[in-house]
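Below is our example:
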Amino acid sequence: MQSATERWDETNWKRRFFTIWTGQAFSLFGSNLVQFALVWWLTSTTGSATVLALATLAAMLPQILLSPIAGAVVDRGSRRLIMMAADSAIALLTLGLVIVFASGSAQIWHVYVIMFARSALGAFHWPAMSASTSLMVPQKHLSRVAGLNQALYGAVNIIAPPAGALMLAALPMHQVLAIDVVTALMAVLPLAFIRVPQPGRSIEAREAGPTSVTQDMKAGLRYLLGWPGLLVVCVMAAVINFIVNPAFALLPILVTRHFGGQALELGWINSAYGVGVIAGGLALSVWGGFKRRIVTSMFGLAFMGVGTLVIGAAPANAFVIAIAGMALAGIMNPITNGPLFAVLQSTVAPDMQGRVMSLLNAFATAMSPLSLLVAGPLSDTLGVQVWYIVGGIACILLAAVGYLTPAVANLERGRPGTAAPIAAASSATPLDGPAQFEPVAK
């Protein structure tokens, strides 16, 4: 049972939410633009799959190591101040990298350090924004906001890569990076004037009295471990990330080494993914998914595997086939993730969402560092395509496992031992789509 949870008034939430959302949208564009520029700089400078794998590792480790702590901090503190601090620090770090590139002294380890630090700050920003969305947006409008966010992500994936390629051709690296400083500050400004609602504490938490961050972390872990279906989903996500993540981390190597492309071709295949995400998000908002949201998610995962398999199987002279496979993977991404996050936002207690979302993120990426350490040298020897083929097959098989596992199939009934969630509908209609708000932080 929950104590009073602060929520925005349903009559005037739009102006405040979309003011924050707009700032975050600009920040997302700046982040993707700079991410493309940094990855391409590493690719063009070294041409090494190992270097790209280590860069991805640097950006991933903080998500694994800090997520449990970040979730507890988010559920204890002011989510607005956490987001402001994270975005401000990211702007300062990027400004430092601008100075390094402008002086001509940039080295690979500089990029590694910045990627690590940005990821560490994002580990706090993402759960703060994700856990606050269900308190800022009325339940009946969550699906519409989710559709808008899917469109945003798709649009950014379409625009940012080719924009990054064009800017790199016309501007020096430090000027491209400076764009991210401006967009980060645009995300901070609305948060300085708009209050973000906070969740109420459960009766049990209030009776237990003051707790430490460590105790809150343990409580979040117990909450997750007491939910078998969600635990199985975490394991599935870890397996998928172990196999599939290296493939997409090494996409620049696939484009240059296998297809003989350059920055423009890399931009096109990234944009194909963005087009797919938009199409998938719009399709889900109209279709609404199958009666059971978990079935929709497993359906999306299976065909995301098909798209990944197509990318790996495309011949060197058939780059257009790889683009088609990437588009299919993009279409299936929101159909896979949207229904799953809708279930979590509807069933997880508001004062636990920061911890649960962070732990889910940590579980999902925990196996990726090991796979990336193996993937770099192995891809330099055997080629990157093998990761796409094996990853595609793994997605298809795990989708079948999820569909046939009762604990996963019953996930939307809520955590065992709790009352049936009011917001979790038993069927999906065109207005009952995903309630996902993916992180638009850096």
In short: The chain has a mean pLDDT of 80. The two ends are 34 Å apart (CA to CA). Residues 226 and 417 are 9 Å apart (CA to CA). Residues 13-197+212-413 form a domain with the Growth Hormone; Chain: A; fold (CATH 1.20.1250.20).
